[in-house]
Amino acid sequence: PTMAARMFSGEALADLRAAFSRRSSTRARRGRGASVIVAGKPKAKNKDTGRAIHFRTGPERFNAGSQVGEAPRGGKGKSKTTRSQRTNKVYKQYLSGRPTVDDVERASRGDRTKAMGVVEREAPYRLTRDEREAWDRAKRRGGDNGKGYGGGGVLEMRSTQRDPLAPHRHPLVNTHRLYCDAKQALFVLVEQDNEGRDEIVCDLSTLRLERDAECRARLVALAATMEPGIVVDDACGDEEPIESQARYVAAMERDRLDGLSGSYPSTMTDPPSDSGSDGDASSPAAAAPSEETLAAARDAVDALGEEIRSLKDGGALNSDPEVARRVAKLLELKAELRALEDAAEAATPEAIEASIRDEREARERAAEEARRSLAESPIYALPERYLRFKCPDRPTAKALAKALAQEDLLALALEPA
Q: Comparing C-alpha atoms, which of 183, 179, 182, 200 is closest to residue 191?
């Protein structure tokens, strides 16, 4: 028995144990503290992740506006989406034709455009503060003719301005040419000289016309009425845009089909003519071999073949030097005979007619592709159509540039003949 058991009776000992246990539990609760449960606010999901983007329509999807179409579902009918369908680039459309003014503004700030292919890779478009001020002044000079097109303005820049980081062109020139393409306006640039002899550069490629000879003649006539000392330099020559583009398309096709003879005629970029069957020196009929030439070539092949056969009948082998020499000569004669037979077959009236028909179809394909590329290619993929005006002084250059920018060339090109 313990000391407590000897000192206290049974009831007193039970009361003492209960008091001791209550004191221990109170001390433990004071040390732990009260437990508090806090209900936190649920974290919002990213709007551009997960399957939720496929149930969002309108401008809120990818913040891309009307450039984004409906998203196709994947997963074999289980209402699931593939990983490629949850990326941003899948839903962006490639540029076809002219860009929007909004995309041009985005490109000038260095932001992502709504459509893909608006700007050229490795070419500068982002404008500095000074360049943006110059561009804003150029746009204010354009005006609005109320017809829904035009108003590209007049860009002025020093002829000594060169950007060492711009291997293609100045970023201000790139952006303004893109803006003129979006506005369907003539690109007008005034290169200001230190001595005041400014030069005006007009680019008609932003109009995307198939034929611009009348427009160039109108601009030259307008310059003649301004000042007699203006010197005009037409870099386009007598070639129309559709002809230049067709020549470019044909050259690209020949490069792609290099090594495949007969796919495209070698003269398909020349002006079309049907003088191939007139009997001159360059026609297939003039190059056709005669029957005597063909008969002589066949007799030579047969005679050499008999000589080789007689040597083998006498015991000679293919490895013998004499047999090998005559076999090589026989192969040369057979190649010449095949070339003569091909030339004779190509000189028939049916072959000549088929060749002319193939050449005409190739020209039509090139012309159709040229029309499509003029309408759908981005402006940096089209060749420039430069027209230069060298002015004697700066006031004349400013007045002429303003008159050129306000000239309604599209109405002149689209009016019925």
A: 200
pLDDT of the residue at 177: 92
29-72 tens-digit pLDDT: 554 545 444 455 554 444 444 444 444 444 444 444 444 444 44
Q: Note the pLDDT of residue 48.
A: 42
- Whole-number Å distance between alpha carbons of 190 and 181: 18
Beta bridge mates, 234: 387
What tokens does 85 get? 């369908």
Side-chain half-sphere exposure of 23, counting CA atoms within 13 A: 6
Look up tokens 């040390």; give the residue.
31
Reported pTM: 0.60
Helix/strand/coil percent split, the chain, to 5 = 50, 5, 40
**Helix ranges, 236-390 (H):** 241-256, 291-313, 321-346, 349-376
Q: And the tokens for 334?
A: 């057979």
CA distance 6 to 10: 10
Helices vs strands, H then E, count in the chain: 12, 5
- Of residues 159 and 90, more confidently modeled: 159
Nearest to 99 by CA among 116, 82, 87: 116
